[in-house]
Amino acid sequence: QVQLVESGGGLVQAGGSLRLSCAASGSISSINAMRWFRQAPGKQRELVAGITSDGSTNYADSVKGRFTISRDNAKNTVYLQMNSLKFEDTAVYYCNLWNVIRNRNYWGQGTQVTVSS
């Protein structure tokens, strides 16, 4: 099993920054992707950013140029640096680890990000 523990959420004013962290533990395949999703009230969960074990990244159009995903493979930790935050970034942010070989997904418990306008 894989456990994911997120941290770093909170309340910030529009234009501010936050950094989310997600530490993975357990049986982690060396071939995986770590991703951040978010879900706002009344909306579907959406992919925000992802990074593979070899460092390839992808971003939702809505966060390109503002958010940066990175990872420390030695610590099995993924980060999401969020700058120039907007009110519409308000959501619960979930960390996800995708075991590519087994095609299994693991989820964190979520961390609330609230941006005040």
What does this molecule look like?
This protein is mainly β and 117 residues long. It has no helices and 11 strands. The chain has strands spanning 2-7, 10-13, 18-26, 32-39, 46-52, 57-59, 67-72, 77-82, 91-99, 104-107, 111-116. The chain is globular. The mean pLDDT is 95.
Features:
4-stranded antiparallel beta sheet; about 60% strand; about 120 residues; about 0% helix; mainly beta; 11 strands
- Main beta-sheet strand count, sense and barrel state: 7 strands, mixed
The low-confidence runs, each spanning 5 or more residues with pLDDT under 50, are none
In N-to-C order, the SSE pattern is EEEEEEEEEEE
Count of alpha and pi helical runs: 0
For the secondary structure, the number of strands is 11
Shape: globular
Class computed from helices, strands and strand pairing: mainly beta
List the quaternary state of the chains.
Answer: single chain
How far from one another are the termini? 40 Å
* Residue share in helix: under 10%
The rounded Rg comes to 14 Å
Mean pLDDT: 95
Tell me what portion of residues adopts beta-strand conformation. over 45%
